Amino acid sequence: MQLSHYNTNFKKQKFPIILVCDNVTNAPNIGSLFRIADAFGVEKLILCGEHIPLGRKMAKTSRATEKVVTYEIQQSASEVIQNLKNENYQIISLEITTTSKPIHTFKFSKKKPIALIIGDENFGVSEHILKISDTIIHIDMFGQNSSMNVVQATNIVLYEMTKQLL
Predict the structure, then answer these.
(1) Which terminus of the chain has a smaller tally of CB atoms within 10 A, N or C?
(2) pLDDT tens digits, residue range 105-161?
(3) Which CATH code fits 15-165?
(4) Which residues of 79-92 are buried (b: 16+ CB within 10 A; e: fewer)?
(5) Three-state DSSP state, 163
C-alpha cells in the first residue's frame, strides 16, 4: 500500500546545514529549493540577490513548504557567507572548477555546521565566493552536458550530506 503524507513514519530531523543561494532567481527553482530544504531537514534557507520572486509561481512548486522552512532574504551572498565563516561554519560551494572535489569521494565533517553554497542558474557560484570557500565540490557528469539544473544538483548533494551526517 502506498503511504501518504499523513501515514509515513519518517523521523523528523534537522541537520546543521544552511543552504545559501547565490542569486538563484527562477521562481519554480526557489519553490523547489524550499521543498527539498524541508525534505532534507535543512536548518535554514538563505536567498541572496536583488530580485527574489516569492509569488504564486514559487508557491506552486514549494507546495506550502515556505510556511515551515526557516528562511531569510539577503542582498549580498558574500556578506552572508563571511558572517557564517565567522560563526565557524564550513563553507562548501557546489561548482565545477579546476580544484573541485567529486562529491562521491568527499567526507562531510560533523565537527562544524555546514553552509552549502549554490549558484545562479546560468553563471553558477560567483568567483569571489569560490575564493572564500573552504571546499568546492562537484557532481561527476557522464554525458555531453557539463552541468545540471541547480535544484537537481542540490538534491544530490543534500542526499549525500544528510546520509553522511546521520
Answers:
(1) N
(2) 999 999 999 999 999 989 999 999 999 999 999 999 999 988 899 999 999 999 999
(3) 3.40.1280.10
(4) ebbeebeeeebbbb
(5) helix
- Residue listed under C-alpha cell 515551515: 68
| 146-161 burial code (b ≥16 CB/10 A, e <16) | eeeebbebbbebbebb
- pLDDT tens for each residue of 32-74: 999 999 999 999 999 999 999 999 999 999 999 999 999 999 9
The C-alpha cell that represents 48 in the structure block: 541572496
Look up residue 76 and give its DSSP letter.
-
As a whole number of angstroms, the distance between CA 160 and CA 32 comes to: 18
What global pTM score does this model have? Answer: 0.95
**CA distance linking residue 63 with residue 59, whole number of Å:** 6
Give the residue extent of every domain in the chain: 15-165
- Residue 24, φ and ψ in degrees, nearest 5: -80, 115
User: What span, in angstroms and rounded, lies between the C-alpha atoms of 71 and 34?
Assistant: 9
Report the phi/psi class of residue 124: left, alpha or beta, with left for phi > 0 and alpha for psi in -120 to 50: left
Rounded distance between C-alpha atoms, residue 93 and residue 147, angstroms: 15
